[in-house]
Design brief:
The chain is mainly beta and about 325 residues long. It has four helices and 19 strands. One of its GO terms (molecular function) is antisigma factor binding.
C-alpha cells in the first residue's frame, strides 16, 4: 500500500493544449473569475507549476478531470522525498514519507494549489473587489490579469494571470498590503486534453487506503468571544483539546472568509508564556499576548496588524470561563 502511484499514472503522450475558439473579452473581472472557476472544475488538464516562497521553490504537477460528475485529481511533488495526493470523488488519499498512507472523506485536497481555484466567487464578491488589470503573457500564453483586493484592507490580496483561451490560472501572486509578493504559483507548462481523463480513470480500479473514520467533533460552548473580525470571516469550528507536543489544554476557534483562514487559541498563562510576540513567515502570522491570566494567540493567513486587532478584541464572559 505504501508504494507510490506515480508510475501507474504516467502519461505516454499528450497533445498540445486544445485551441479553443477565441472569445470576446469578458464584460467584467467577476465574470472572468466565474469562467476560471468553471474551467478549473470541469476541464481535463495537466498543469506543471512551481510554488515560490521566500526561501524555497517547490515544483509540482497537477492533473484533473471530471467524469460522470465526480472529480478525479492527482498532485505530485516533483522534488525531494516522494509525495502525492489523489482525489477520487469524495475521497482524498495522502502519501507522505514516514507516514502510513491514509484516506479521508473530503471533496477538496489539502495541498499547495492556488486557493482561488475552487472558491465561491459569489461569496467573495461581498468583501473583495475584482479589478481588471489588462493583459500580459505568462507560461507562453496571453493572459487576462485580475486583482482580487479586500474591500476593508484588512487581509492579503491576489493577482491572477488567467489564460485567455482555457481560462485556467497560469500564475497567482499572493500580495501583502504593500503589494509585495509573499508567494507565487507560476505555471511552466499545461495541457488540456481528453487523454488526461483517460489516464485518471485508472484511479477507479486502484486500491487506495481505507477511509479513516474520524469521530464526530462536538462544537464546544466557549466562554469567550471575538468582538472584531475582518468583513466576511465566519466561525467554522470551535473546540477544546490538548496540544500534541506539550499536552497543554487550549480552547480554539477557526474562522474563514472562503479564501483565507486563521485560528484563535486561548490557554492559561504559565512560566513559559511570553507577554507579547509577533512573528510573520510568508503568508502565516502568529501574534500572542497576555490578557490577565490568559494567553491569547492568533495564527493564520492574515496580516500582522489584522492578527493584533483580532487578538485584542477577545473578551471573556463575566460569568467566568472554562478555559483551563
Amino acid at each position: 500500500m505504501k508504494r507510490l502511484l506515480v508510475g501507474v499514472l504516467t502519461l505516454v503522450s499528450l497533445a498540445m493544449p486544445c485551441q479553443a475558439s477565441a472569445e470576446e473579452p469578458v464584460s467584467s473581472a467577476e465574470a472572468l473569475l466565474h469562467q476560471m472557476d468553471e474551467a478549473s472544475r470541469k476541464l481535463s488538464y495537466e498543469l506543471s507549476y512551481i510554488l515560490i516562497k521566500k526561501n524555497s521553490i517547490e515544483p509540482l504537477r497537477y492533473r484533473h478531470a471530471l467524469e460522470d460528475g465526480e472529480t478525479f485529481a492527482h498532485l505530485v511533488y516533483l522534488s525531494g522525498p516522494p509525495r502525492e495526493v489523489i482525489q477520487r470523488g469524495q475521497e482524498v488519499s495522502y502519501f507522505e514519507p514516514g507516514l502510513d498512507p491514509f484516506t479521508i472523506d473530503s471533496n477538496k485536497m489539502v495541498a499547495p494549489l492556488p486557493p482561488i481555484m475552487k472558491t465561491d466567487i459569489n461569496e467573495l464578491a461581498g468583501y473583495y473587489d475584482f479589478i481588471s488589470m489588462g493583459r500580459a503573457r505568462e507560461a507562453g500564453v496571453p493572459c487576462d490579469v485580475v486583482r482580487i483586493a479586500p474591500k476593508d484592507g484588512a487581509r492579503y490580496s491576489y493577482l491572477l494571470w488567467i489564460d485567455t483561451l482555457s481560462k485556467l490560472v497560469m500564475r497567482a501572486d499572493l500580495l501583502d498590503r504593500d503589494g509585495e509578493p509573499l508567494e507565487q504559483y507560476r505555471a511552466v507548462s499545461y495541457v488540456i486534453n481528453p487523454k488526461v481523463a483517460d489516464v485518471l480513470k485508472s484511479l477507479k480500479t486502484i486500491e487506495l487506503p481505507a477511509v479513516v473514520q474520524l469521530p464526530p467533533q462536538p462544537q464546544a460552548e466557549l466562554d469567550w468571544q471575538v468582538n472584531w473580525l475582518p468583513q466576511g470571516f465566519e466561525s467554522i469550528s470551535r473546540n477544546r483539546h490538548r496540544l500534541m507536543m506539550t499536552e497543554r489544554p487550549v480552547e480554539s476557534k477557526m474562522f474563514s472568509d472562503g479564501l483565507f483562514s486563521f485560528s484563535i487559541y486561548i490557554s492559561s498563562a504559565d512560566n513559559f508564556t511570553v507577554r507579547e510576540q509577533l512573528v510573520r513567515q510568508g503568508r502565516r502570522t502568529l501574534h500572542s499576548y497576555l490578557l490577565n491570566d490568559k494567553e491569547v494567540t492568533v495564527v493564520g493567513d492574515i496580516p500582522p496588524a489584522t492578527a493584533r486587532r483580532v487578538a485584542e478584541s477577545v473578551v471573556f464572559n463575566v460569568a467566568g470561563s472554562h478555559t483551563p
